[in-house]
Amino acid sequence: MKPFTRVLSAFAVGILLQGGVYLYLDQYMFAPTTDFNVAGASKDDTKNFPDVKEGTKYVSYDRQFMAVVTESSLKIYKANESKPTTIDLKGRSISYFSWMPDRNYAIMGLYDSREVVMARLNADDPEHEVDTKLEDLPRNSKIVDAAYSEATNVVYMKVKVQEHAYRIYRTDANYDTRRVYMQATDIGHIGVFYDEDRFFYDNAKTGDIFMFNGIEGGWRVINPPGRFRLIGVDMDKTIYIARVDEDNNALTVYTGKLGVGFKPVYKYNHPTTFNELTLSDVKTIIKDGSDETTKVTEDDTSSKSSSDSKKKS
Q: What is the share, in percent, of the chain residues with pLDDT greater than 70?
């Protein structure tokens, strides 16, 4: 074979291999396949697992694994098998656990009196975790929530440093981990777009909702005038927010999108504690209605929020 022909053949093989690897990563490893996970598991989710009494149960997105979590222990069960794998926490406690919404990996918040760690756990090989240590945190800090962007592999972590005071840390596929400085410390709910590095959070004290651009670093307030809290963000990038009163009772639920704005969809017939709302419950009410709510196209509860006249920066 002539040298030039051999070079062309090698080049063609390389292109085919590269294309095959890309297709695998795009279609299998990084393809989002489900909505955001919710804490805990329903009875139907756990039917293929032992009836374990202790701990909180978390079932993976494809129902092939179940984690049983207490503050000081973690056991991973495989579907239709009775013997779990017990994870060595190395003397640390668990402050947060969630399966990733599109693959059999879990994100954990681990802590002791000296350090805070975000651990990634592969359910197929649970004894080998990948740890990311968070730097420069006060003693006894802990991760209490996380928002994961499936397509970008970016994770935002909400870290409690003291009562009503939180920090946000960001890590990516290269394990580049850093603190992201926000416009609030009393951070409430958090969320992120599944395919963009756009992070959302609310200031529980003032009732402002922010969008942070993780690539460019910019931020802006996104809610209408008034006092609002973030409920969550779903897979079609719809943002769910609630108008609240000074006591953080939910009055009206809005939906919206970036660049489009928000509109009210229903109001609560009686003020409802905001912290009792979940994204899945809100979406069910929007779809099916509820005896406790009324559909609306205009918000007549705005007068109940004393912050309506507040100007947004």
A: 82
CATH number of 146's domain: 2.130.10.10
Q: What is the 3-state secondary structure of the chain? A: CCHHHHHHHHHHHHHHHHHHHHHHHHHHHCCCCCCCCCCCCCCHHHCCCCCCCCCEEEECCCCCEEEEEECCEEEEEECCCCCCEECCCCCCEEEEEEECCCCCEEEEEEECCCCEEEEEEECCCCCCCEEEEECCCCCCCEEEEEEEECCCCEEEEEEEEECCEEEEEEECCCCCCEEECCCCCCEEEEEECCCCCEEEEEECCCCEEEEEECCCCCEEECCCCCCEEEEEECCCCCEEEEEECCCCEEEEEEEEECCCEEEEEEEEEEEEEHHHCCHHHHHHHHHHCCCCEEECCCCCCHHHCCCCCCCCC
Cα dihedral 268, 273, 276, 282 in deg (nearest 10)? 20
Range of 69's domain?
Answer: 33-181
Number of domains in the chain: 1
Residue 41 has a pLDDT of 63
Residues of the chain under the 50 pLDDT cut? 1-8, 10-38, 306-313
pLDDT at 43: 57
